Amino acid sequence: MLAIDVKDLRKDFRVQKNREGLSGALQDLFKREYNEVRAVKDISFQIPQGEICGYIGENGAGKSTTIKMLTGILVPTAGDIKVNGYVPFKDREKFVNGIGVVFGQRSQLWWDIGVIESFQLLRKVYRVSEADFRKRLDNLVDRLQLGELLNRPVRKLSLGQRMRCELVASLLHNPSILFLDEPTIGLDIVVKTEIRDFLMQMNKEEGTTILLTTHDLQDIEALCSRVIMLDDGKIIYDGGLDDLKTKWSKGREIQFQFTKQTPLAKLEALTDGIDASWTIENDLTAKLFVPHEVSFSDAMARVVGGADIRDIKIFETNTDEIVRSIYHSGSAETTKKEVASS
Fold first, then answer.
1. Which of 17, 96, 104, 161 could disulfide-link to 157, CB 3.0 to 4.6 Å?
2. Whole-number Å distance between alpha carbons of 162 and 155
3. Cβ-proximal residues to 193 (8 Å cutoff; 6+ apart), any chain
4. Whole-angstrom Cα distance, residue 326 to residue 217?
């Protein structure tokens, strides 16, 4: 069974038009005018059980609106949604028992009481038995190292500590699907890495389906094999992360550190006849750019066989650069040649 099935999903909002000046404000009191804004534009996608899918887009692209419809917070204007076989806004009581939600900028914990008391309240909300709750809580607390935090008020936790507690709160009832909306926003690299490792382990061990929205593309690289990219309410890419890199990356760079100064003319002679270019960084270091159309192993072998080398580093085009290129072009279907010429 599919974890998430979305067909022709649409969401429109009525936004009030504000007239200028005092007279305009008075008119607005008696007769308001509205604009119709379409935030999500007839999108369709399916996510099988056990997949970790990255749902990315710029601010205003429609990510959070989609998540709110998938979690039953918003009712779609048109289209069909099924999550775990339920329609979120219709079958809410049955539906919520199978999902966990973490909004990075909103808390589901009570601010002035201890963390464990928040967990106890959530246990009652989700109707989890005391025995199942204790077993699940002990496991999660151990994996996320929260033992010393359970009796602290939430307001006294650091952001990283609170986010780890938010994750536990969303998983106490053992949901099969986890929705994460900017879960690592504002966190330092150590906490981000801990959360990524935990999510990956949970997915492998328990088969939890994860839909992740984030602006931190390192989250996507660390966790997701598939990416759905949204722009202006429309899906502009839905596919594998590796396919996206292969299609959009302009090539790779090889940084060579030589044992002695090697003239540019000699380096260019080594790669004569292939479409690759050199950049000298200093007397002993140079970079070779190799387009995807050129045999990477051939270019590497030519240099290794013709120069004395101390060290080699290989650099891929990173995901941030690729995504920026796609948004600049407005479509992930654009070819690499079109990107290079833009």
1. 161
2. 9
3. none
4. 14
- Taking only the tens place, the pLDDT of each residue in 269-298 is 999 988 888 999 998 999 998 887 788 888
Angle subtended at Cα 140 by Cα 134 and Cα 141, rounded to the nearest 5 degrees: 85
Give me the torsion for CA of 314, 315, 316, 317, rounded to 10°. Answer: -160
The single-letter code of the amino acid at 8 is: D
Q: Distance between CA atoms of 257 and 290, rounded to whole angstroms?
A: 17
pLDDT tens readout for residues 228-279: 988 889 998 899 887 877 777 677 788 999 999 989 999 999 999 888 889 9
H helix or E strand, kind and range, residue 264: helix 264-270
* Contact call for residues 128 and 97 (beta carbons, < 8 A): no
**Residue 183 burial (C-beta neighbours within 10 Å; 0-12, 13-18, 19+):** buried
Q: How far is it, in rounded angstroms, from Cα 44 to Cα 234? A: 9
Element of type H or E holding 316: strand 309-316
Residues 143-165: tens digit of each pLDDT: 888 888 899 999 999 888 898 99
Question: Where do runs of H (alpha helix) occur along 83-216?
Answer: 92-95, 115-125, 130-144, 159-171, 189-206
Tokens 């599919």 sit on residue: 2
According to DSSP, the β-strands at 251-258 and 285-291 are antiparallel
